[in-house]
C-alpha cells in the first residue's frame, strides 16, 4: 500500500494526477480498512508473563537498584514483584524475609505483634536491630532494641 501511495505521489509531482484525487483515494482506502477492523476486530496475540497475583496484568522487566526484576504493570494496585532469572520472572523464589516474629504485643495499636528487623546505619555502616508492628502500614510503631528486647518507652513518659 505504501509503495502504491509513493508511486501516486510521484505521479502528482509529474502532473499525471491531481492531489485532490490522491487524497480522496487515500481517505476511501483508510475508511474501508477501519470499517473492516471494527467489523472483524484484530487478532493480536499478546505474549508475556501474566501476573499470578492479580491475574489481570502482564509483568514488566525493570532495572532496579540491585539489578533487573519483574513487576506487575498493574502497579500501584498490584505490587507483585519477582526476581529476574535468565531473563524470565522467577515464580519459585521465596520472598525476602520481612523479619522475625516475636511474642511482643504492639503497645501503640494493641492489635499487632512486633517483628524484629535488621537495619544498617548510613553513617557507621554497622547493623542494628529494631522492631516494627506487623500491622504496618496501618500502624507505624517502631522501636530500637535494648538488651535483646524492644525498647518501649513508658506510657508515663509520653
Report on the structure:
The protein has 3 domains: 2-40; 45-96, no CATH class; 100-157, no CATH class. By secondary structure, it is of the alpha+beta class. 9% of the residues are buried. 22% of the residues lie in helices and 30% in strands. The model has no long low-confidence stretch (mean pLDDT 88). The strands form 2 sheets. It has a 5-stranded antiparallel beta sheet, with no helix packed on it. Residues 84-104 are annotated as: Disordered. Keywords: DNA-binding.
Number of domains: 3
Number of helices: 2
**Total strands:** 9
- N-C termini distance: 77 Å
**Uncertain ranges:** none
Q: Beta fraction of the residues?
A: 25-35%
**What summary fits the major beta sheet?**
5 strands, antiparallel
Shape: elongated
Helix content range:
10-25%
Strand order of the largest sheet: 5-6-7-8-9
GO molecular function: DNA binding
Domain DNA topoisomerase type IA zn finger: 50-84, 105-144
Region (Disordered): 84-104
Organism: Microbulbifer spongiae
Summarize the structure.
Residues 84-104 are annotated as: Disordered. With 158 residues, this protein is α+β, with helices and mostly antiparallel strands.
Name some characteristics of this structure:
2 helices, single chain, 5-stranded antiparallel β-sheet, 158 residues, 4-stranded antiparallel β-sheet, elongated
Secondary-structure map:
Blueprint: H1 2-14, H2 19-40, E1 59-64, E2 67-72, E3 81-85, E4 88-89, E5 100-105, E6 113-120, E7 127-133, E8 142-146, E9 149-150
Antiparallel strand pairs: 1-2, 2-3, 3-4, 5-6, 6-7, 7-8, 8-9
Amino acid at each position: 500500500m505504501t509503495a502504491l501511495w509513493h508511486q501516486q505521489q510521484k505521479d502528482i509531482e509529474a502532473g499525471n494526477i491531481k492531489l485532490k484525487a490522491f487524497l480522496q483515494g487515500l481517505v476511501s482506502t483508510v475508511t474501508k480498512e477501519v470499517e473492516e477492523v471494527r467489523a472483524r476486530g484484530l487478532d493480536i496475540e499478546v505474549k508475556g508473563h501474566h501476573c499470578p497475583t492479580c491475574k489481570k496484568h502482564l509483568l514488566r522487566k525493570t532495572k532496579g537498584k540491585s539489578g533487573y526484576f519483574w513487576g506487575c504493570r498493574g502497579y500501584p494496585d498490584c505490587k507483585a514483584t519477582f526476581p529476574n532469572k535468565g531473563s524470565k520472572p522467577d515464580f519459585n523464589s521465596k520472598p525476602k524475609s520481612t523479619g522475625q516474629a516475636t511474642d511482643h504485643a504492639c503497645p501503640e495499636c494493641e492489635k499487632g505483634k512486633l517483628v524484629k528487623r535488621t537495619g544498617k546505619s548510613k553513617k557507621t555502616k554497622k547493623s542494628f536491630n529494631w522492631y516494627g508492628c506487623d500491622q504496618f502500614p496501618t500502624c507505624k510503631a517502631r522501636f530500637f532494641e535494648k538488651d535483646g528486647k524492644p525498647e518501649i518507652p513508658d506510657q508515663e513518659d509520653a
